[in-house]
Structure formats: structure tokens, C-alpha cells
From TrEMBL:
<dbReference type="InterPro" id="IPR011022">
    <property type="entry name" value="Arrestin_C-like"/>
</dbReference>
<dbReference type="GO" id="GO:0015031">
    <property type="term" value="P:protein transport"/>
</dbReference>
<dbReference type="InterPro" id="IPR050357">
    <property type="entry name" value="Arrestin_domain-protein"/>
</dbReference>
<feature type="domain" description="Arrestin C-terminal-like">
    <location>
        <begin position="76"/>
        <end position="213"/>
    </location>
</feature>
<dbReference type="GO" id="GO:0005886">
    <property type="term" value="C:plasma membrane"/>
</dbReference>
<dbReference type="GO" id="GO:0005768">
    <property type="term" value="C:endosome"/>
</dbReference>
<dbReference type="InterPro" id="IPR014756">
    <property type="entry name" value="Ig_E-set"/>
</dbReference>
<dbReference type="Pfam" id="PF02752">
    <property type="entry name" value="Arrestin_C"/>
</dbReference>
<dbReference type="InterPro" id="IPR014752">
    <property type="entry name" value="Arrestin-like_C"/>
</dbReference>
<protein>
    <submittedName>
        <fullName>Arrestin domain-containing protein 5</fullName>
    </submittedName>
</protein>
Length: 234
């Protein structure tokens, strides 16, 4: 027969890393007088919630600039100016992130490669048996694009890029109110300059807020029982 289960209003997202993970599953059991006759477990992808975005309003529009003086060919010098422009920097999982990168190449060399990447930075808080506070950080690359272009000397080029965010993401948060894990995101554009053995980077903070996830776009996953899972039985 049909059964239902209401999730609590505040939950962490489904999450997996080298340090820790959060799993959710639903379990149905058919029990006889003395034995369990059948058992079915189904993993769920759960989008978490947070109040972080209420404390961090939209920045609209957003412009970040990085400039670097470059030396090459022993005595030649020039400047690379890198800009990222966005209409907003707050998104929900599954949205499209559209941004424009402008590269002003004031050197006598050609620029051939620009890399765009979205990073998640997670910080964990815990305590030792002696109640000593410990912090540990972990970073991972979620999305990556590489633009092969020819930015000629003393010229400016604009590149419009799009990232499609995953349907389930940990929401942006901070280590407050007893939380053991905080997450923040960063969009990074990198211009590699192999002829000077250096690079130029522009970084934009990205805020991820909670939103309902379409169940048709995130089907449940079947698997083994995890001791860290949170259980909902019927």
C-alpha cells in the first residue's frame, strides 16, 4: 500500500568526499512472526537547506578583476588584465551559471588557453577525545571548461561561458550554530602563460542556496545499507 514520509525542514545535502559523507535511504521490510521475509532499500538524493543566503544578499551585477605584470624573453615586460562579469553570483542547484571573461593582453605574446573551473571548498570542525578543537579543509573541482583561443598581442578578447550546476549540491554555509561542516564555492578563470612560467587568475565567490529538486531528474539509487545513513521506515 502507498506510504509517505515527511523530511525535516533543515537537512544537509547528499554529500560524499574523502573525509566524510551524508547518505539518505528509504527502507521497506516485510516481517513475519519470527523472520524478516523481505527487505528493500532505496537511496535518495536529497537537496539540503540553509539560511546562509539570507545573510549574504545578491551582488548584482558582479565584476572581478585581476592584473599581473609579466616578464618574458629576459627583458620584455607587459601586463595581462583578466575580468569576470556576471549578472548575479547566487544560484540554486541545477541552474545555469553564465559569465563573461575579458582578457586584455598587453604583451608581445599570444595567449592560447583559458581555463574555467568551479571549486567547492569544505571545512570540517571536530574535537579530539581531550575536547581540543580541530579544523580540516578539503577542496574539489566540480566543473571545468577549457577555451582554446588565439588572443593576439596587444588585443582584448571576450569569452562567454556557461556551467550547468549539478541537481544536488551542498548549500553555502558557515561554521555557526554548532555546524560541523561549512561549504563555499568559487568560480576561477585562469590564463596560462607557458612562455613566462606563470598564470593569471580571477576568482568569483559563488553562493548556492536551497531549492526543491525535481524527483524525475534525480532518480533514487539502490545500494547497500550505510551505517551513516538516516533511516525512514514504513
Amino acid at each position: 500500500r502507498p506510504a509517505s514520509c515527511s523530511l525535516p525542514p533543515r537537512l544537509p545535502s547528499t554529500f560524499t568526499s574523502k573525509i566524510g559523507h551524508v547518505f539518505y535511504f528509504m527502507q521497506a521490510s516485510c516481517v513475519g512472526r519470527e523472520h524478516i521475509l523481505a527487505k528493500k532499500r532505496m537511496y535518495l538524493l536529497v537537496q539540503g537547506t540553509s539560511d546562509f543566503h539570507k545573510e549574504n544578499p545578491l551582488q548584482n551585477p558582479l565584476l572581478v578583476e585581476a592584473e599581473k605584470k609579466i616578464s618574458y624573453n629576459c627583458c620584455s615586460q607587459g601586463t595581462i588584465c583578466l575580468q569576470i562579469q556576471m549578472e548575479k553570483n547566487t544560484f540554486v542547484p541545477g541552474q545555469r551559471v553564465i559569465f563573461t571573461t575579458e582578457i586584455n593582453n598587453q604583451t608581445g605574446k599570444c595567449i592560447k588557453t583559458v581555463i574555467f573551473a568551479l571549486y567547492a571548498h569544505v571545512q570540517y570542525e571536530g574535537f579530539t577525545p581531550n575536547a581540543e578543537r580541530r579544523l580540516r579543509a578539503e577542496s574539489s573541482e566540480l566543473l571545468r571548461q577549457e577555451a582554446n583561443t588565439q588572443i593576439t598581442p596587444f588585443d582584448t578578447t571576450k569569452i562567454v561561458s556557461t556551467f550547468n550546476l549539478p541537481q544536488v549540491l551542498s548549500v553555502s554555509s558557515s561554521l555557526q550554530d554548532g555546524e560541523i561542516m561549512s561549504t563555499h564555492y568559487e568560480l576561477v578563470s585562469t590564463v596560462h602563460l607557458p612562455w613566462s612560467l606563470t598564470s593569471v587568475k580571477a576568482k568569483v565567490p559563488i553562493i548556492i542556496t536551497s531549492a526543491p529538486v525535481d524527483p524525475d531528474s534525480c532518480p533514487p539509487l539502490e545500494g547497500q545499507l550505510s551505517p551513516e545513513s538516516q533511516e525512514c521506515q514504513n
